[in-house]
Batch of 2 targets.
Target 1
Amino acid sequence: MQHSAWFSVLSAAVAGGVTLFDMDRTFVVSGYQVYRSAWWWGFIVVNCGIAAAVFFGLRPLGTFQEWNSWLFAAGVGVCYLAIVRLKFATVSYQNSEIPVGLDTFYESGRQFVFKRINEAVKADRARLAKKLIDDNDLKSLGSQVRMDIHLDALLTPEEKKTRQAWLLKVVQDPDFDEEQKKMTLAVYLASGTQA
Amino acid sequence: MPYFVRPVESKVLVALRKHGDSPVEALVAHSGLSPEDVRKALSALQRRGLVVESSTARYTLTDDGLKTSLNAAPGGAREPVTGIFLLDDEIEETASATSEDELNRALDDALGARDDVSDQ
């Protein structure tokens, strides 16, 4: 017996979560501007749609009809990318092997969307860095970076010391003028948290 | 996220910029590092998107990797590139040879934190 079509919603939801986590890992965002981006949410919706399509593609196959419906739907949500990335054939062209499959389209589309999101993230960071430079003097920015390092629970003690040594060098470096020092510290603060 | 490029990674970036896409063996020869150090550096640089591996196990710089490698060169501009910051040998030595208390005292002095306390 075929799984109910309603289980495609579970596949789509799991795929949406997987995509969201992937994007969150790739783009660390200091502000919330990017979450209003149509590219961000559009890409998640497209992935939900792909997972649902894979669900309906695999559902009629006898192999999967004995599976528990929840397990099948969740499995599709987690593994849909592996299925999309299957290579159907390999073509030889000018002494190189070119894999043929949906992966080429998916990966090109992913790069296209990620470039646009990256532009939005960079613009967001530039706005934040400019505001930090305008609103703070060097001492204040240095103190904020110091606190950021101190409060970052994901840094090891060695990494904290390395960053403190870096901060000390930036603040004291005679080769930097005050504006360059402020810019460096503002960009650090605008770059978000440790991955 | 801020990413700190270690001196070992800087050497690999500079070698890649000078010699174009290269396999690990060539990077070992050009950078003077051990194969283990080169592999670790490549792995870290790939995770940060500064280097990509081609299908033929050769490595090449991305756009951000190229900009960072220019900053890493002696006399480089040292402009921050999309949250990427360079560590040099001096910084690593300071971090390893100085206790946390000493670093904090030095930062207090550099940032004028002690002046603030005495002013109050």
Target 2
Amino acid sequence: MIFKKTLPLLTALALASVAHADINVGVTVSATGPAASLGIPEKNTIALMPATIAGQKINYIVLDDASDTTAAVTNARKLINEYKVDVLLGSTTTPNSLAMIDVAAEAQTPMISMAASARIVEPQDAKKRWVFKTPQNDIMMSLAIVAHMADSGVKSVGFIGFSDAYGEGWYQEFSKIASLKGIQIVANERYNRTDTSVTGQALKILAAKPDAVLVAASGTPAVLPQRALKERGYAGKYYQTHGVANNDFLRVGGKDVEGTFLPSGPVLVATQLPASHPLKKSSLEYVTKYEKANGAGSVSTFGGHAWDAGKLMEAAVGPALKKAKPGTLEFRIALRDSLEAVKEVAGAHGVFNMSATDHLGLDQRARVMVKIEGGAWKYQP
Amino acid sequence: MDSQVALLLAQDGIVNGAVYALMALALVLVFSVTRVIFIPQGEFVAFGALTMALLQAGRTPGSLWLLLALAAVTLLVELVRHQRGVAVDWASTALWAILLPALAAFSVIFLRPASLTGQAAATLLVITPLGPLLYRLAYRPLAHATVLTLLIVSVALHGVLVGLGLFFFGAEGFRTNAFSELRLDLGGIPVGGQSLVVMGTASLLVILMFLFFERTIVGKALRATAMNRVGARLMGIPTELSGDLSFALAALIGAVSGLLIGPLTTIYYDTGFLIGLKGFVAAIIGGLTSYPLALAGALLVGLLESFSSFWASALKEVIVFTMIIPVLLWRSLNSHHVEDEE
């Protein structure tokens, strides 16, 4: 609704901008619908992005795709055809981002996704060469969890995940790495985001007596299995994925999620990072800016992915401007090329080093292990 | 699977089944009196639980503003109807659109109840009048339309309410404080106090509804309207008011269900839909007309859900919703088709 109201204004801005050859940035995020808790901080983050880069005015056109794939594609087309954007940021979810790839490639417009799946940028082909993404791949996070499990002597794991692409994707990545490290998966259960009870699954996991349980779910629905297991007296270790790294999870989970381990981008514990950590400064910058605009304690890791998309764009615009004028195909090609050449750009979540085959560009610096202690995130060195 | 696991699953199934039973009850009630398949029934559950959660967090729930806005629009509509010379029943209008919303606003904004019972009462006051107000605005102008048209209105209303839910309560979930922290050990099976509260309240509501329909004159009038609208009107029953009343009961049942499951699980603005849908499956088992069959169906849905989550958790929803096919087959083979009133 808010977007609708500002649309005429934005149209006017966009039209005016074409004449001045400002840089137009088209954003589509899932600010409503099931992915709203991810999309809203991303939308708030867009407002913090720089108004000028390398002396060029930047116009941000923000649309909401309501977590809907069709709407994301419509938005992408609208941004490209009506607003003549030079770069697309979005969308929030994997299905939406995958659907937008064709549109971006067809219009030869670089796109930076804020969704997690590795499939968005892998394997690189004629279409996906236009696409970049900022969130860590599940496999990086799986590695962190398995390494932590192996170090603390876990031999068997019970797995419970969403019965959708998130849970399934995690199971595949996790089971692959776990078997390499000799960790056995003794139970494999699924539940729905909207379920009100997981007693059946919890009982099954209890019967298998694993050393640890991994809950592969996102947001506050991830509390449910852990609470069900706690109620039935499961005393092993609990692991969650980075999909729960927002404060609402702590609020809803309360004392039931105490002592849980999870991998996350460094931004979650930015203030606790040692001064020597390569991301201390850049993570803190984002946290400070976001909390200044939206209140203390409001920052979430999801907004950080949008921030990183902005950082990549910022780094790439300068070199691209030297080659061509904004609003032209040449500029979009130059922007894509310089996005691919980004080196050592530190964002909120990690340090990006892109290449022709790697359009994510993150390394092991992009994840830390975190423990929930006293209702807060605690950095685990 | 040993007997203890089976008992735990059965307990879980019965607790969930009790909530589905309340949903089914409300759906059968609304359908039999007004022929509306009330898809947004589940929204009352979510709104009830979330209103309670916000009251406990010391915030003013957005559902109150929805109630006040609906009340104002309803008053306006009734005034316009009055101007046009339609006979308006001002007594019931005053009750649903002035008295109850005013009480709700007073208790939420000024009393700010701190006790669990006070908060529950305030929640019921906010949610219950939403039923008749929504009925008057969305359904009453179409009271003589086909079941299909009414169903389409229901779907639209569901969409609107879910959107408003996101706007009022935000995308993240809430959990309310438990009514009972009690933990019992019945023969080695741990039973939570809240589960007992759910089962007890659900049974109590069912008995009260039974008494209401069997023993009171208003309840009998509602049943008469459900059986034959024209005949009931000829007997002097104000059939317009029965719509108000059945929707108020539905909203009340929804809000109570929300209060009951709020402490058991995390409720989101869109949680209600699936709960309502499972209640709908149960109501279908009862052919949308039979209360006892709907209750049995609800327990069946609850148990099926809990046991299938143990054996095949990935296929749980598939199993629950597939059940509707044999039920429909069985019903269509076993019952003679009754023509619609129109």
